[in-house]
């Protein structure tokens, strides 16, 4: 008798536990779909014949899920996309679209389309021979979209994409660094195109790209602006700057584009019914880390942890023959171009919970719950 009551109670307890767990799951983020460049690439370039690769040591040395082996991420640990997904309650990192395991139910947690060297414009990143630009990344999402229809049925799928999924877009830096500002390939373009007209082109293309995602049922967006690309160790090294100086032109271009991006996102939120576009102010966030690095526990914001050449180890990309710093979490920059995991953690926290100086008109945790 005693055991019978217990088993009944235990069954009831178990059922309520399962229901609670399911309710908790329902409150969590469904999927994150990640678009962009090397700042958020989680391994797509491993599957491309390209000169832009990060699946070489010591990249990934602090990435626990791979035991410190390189994964194709352009940093020592997690990217901002990884950290945001974890914080919003996702059990798995979004799988790279080109990886063999981006099939079946795994895609319900999200897919990562980002590619080192990729940009808004198709011509961006040509120097790397191969990379996925935004147009191609969105074509790939169109494939995923149909797979989700098959997995959930069209009506549930539409709900899942529009209500329980966040679309993050981190792109634009390469359009300057590996297109407009590139001495060899863009001399023609730079002579024939003013910064105004180039930024115009970027905004026009991005408007089309975000609208296409909306047509595929995306509703919750977060779009990062371009960071202070004149302050990365690469730019500081080749321009032989002092520790606390940044190169003016790249930063000026970024600021110009960022102003237009903010307007574009407000325009899209107004014009596309049911949509919310967040503006992630990566520029001011990274500038704050660079300016007040000691306040955040860093010992340097100018020298790359992994790299070689010049006063900031900023010329040769990170690889097996590079020198590597001993205190990786004390460097804002992991390599000549990309932030360290320690910097990514701080940046992600501000995007998740920060105020409108850094993420507007609301933060990511609020976006998840609308
Ligand atoms: C997919 O494969 C990648 C690398 O091959 C691995 O890091 C990741 O954990 C796998 N993800 C899932 C959800 O199976
Ligand atoms: C960019 O390339 C994609 C795929 O190759 C193509 O569909 C698209 O039309 C191109 N966009 C422009 C503006 O040329
Ligand atoms: C998605 O793909 C289909 C073809 O399978 C095409 O008709 C449609 O225009 C595409 N949608 C977008 C928004 O690119």
Automatic annotation (TrEMBL):
It comes from the Eukaryota. GO terms for molecular function: hydrolase activity, acting on ester bonds. Keywords: Hydrolase, Lipid degradation, Lipid metabolism, Signal. This is Lipase. Residues 1-23 form the signal peptide. It comes from Trema orientale. GO terms for biological process: lipid catabolic process. The keyword Lipid metabolism applies. Pfam families: Lipase_GDSL. Belongs to the 'GDSL' lipolytic enzyme family. The keyword Ribosomal protein does not apply.
């Amino acid at each position: 008798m005693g055991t019978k009551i217990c088993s009944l109670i235990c069954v009831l307890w178990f059922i309520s536990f399962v229901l609670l767990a399911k309710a908790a799951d329902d409150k969590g983020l469904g999927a994150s779909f990640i678009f962009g460049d090397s700042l958020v690439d989680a391994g797509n370039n491993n599957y491309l014949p390209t000169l832009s690769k990060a699946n070489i040591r010591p990249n990934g040395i602090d990435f626990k899920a791979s035991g410190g082996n390189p994964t194709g991420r352009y940093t020592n640990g997690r990217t901002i996309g990884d950290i945001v997904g974890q914080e919003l309650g996702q059990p798995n990192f979004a799988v790279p679209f080109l990886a063999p395991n981006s099939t079946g139910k795994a895609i319900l947690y999200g897919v990562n389309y980002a590619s080192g060297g990729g940009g808004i414009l198709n011509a961006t990143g040509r120097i790397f021979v191969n990379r996925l630009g935004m147009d191609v990344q969105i074509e790939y999402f169109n494939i995923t979209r149909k797979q989700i229809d098959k997995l959930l049925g069209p009506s549930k799928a539409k709900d899942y994409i529009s209500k329980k999924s966040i679309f993050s877009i981190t792109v634009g830096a390469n359009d300057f660094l590996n297109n407009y500002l590139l001495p060899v390939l863009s001399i023609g373009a730079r002579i024939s195109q003013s910064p105004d007209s180039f930024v115009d082109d970027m905004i026009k293309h991005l408007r089309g790209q975000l609208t296409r995602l909306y047509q595929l049922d995306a509703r919750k967006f977060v779009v990062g602006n371009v960071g202070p690309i004149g302050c990365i160790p690469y730019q500081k090294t080749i321009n032989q700057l002092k520790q606390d100086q940044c190169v003016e032109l790249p930063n000026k271009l970024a600021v110009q584009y960022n102003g237009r991006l903010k307007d574009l996102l407000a325009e899209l939120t107004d014009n596309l019914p049911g949509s919310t576009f967040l503006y992630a102010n990566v520029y001011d966030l990274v500038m704050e880390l660079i300016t007040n690095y000691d306040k955040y526990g860093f010992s340097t914001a100018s020298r790359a942890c992994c790299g070689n050449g010049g006063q900031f180890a900023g010329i040769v990309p990170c690889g097996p023959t590079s020198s590597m710093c001993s205190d990786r979490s004390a460097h804002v920059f992991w390599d000549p171009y990309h932030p360290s995991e320690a910097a990514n953690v701080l940046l992600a926290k501000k995007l998740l919970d920060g105020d409108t100086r850094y993420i507007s008109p609301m933060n990511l945790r609020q976006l998840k719950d609308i």
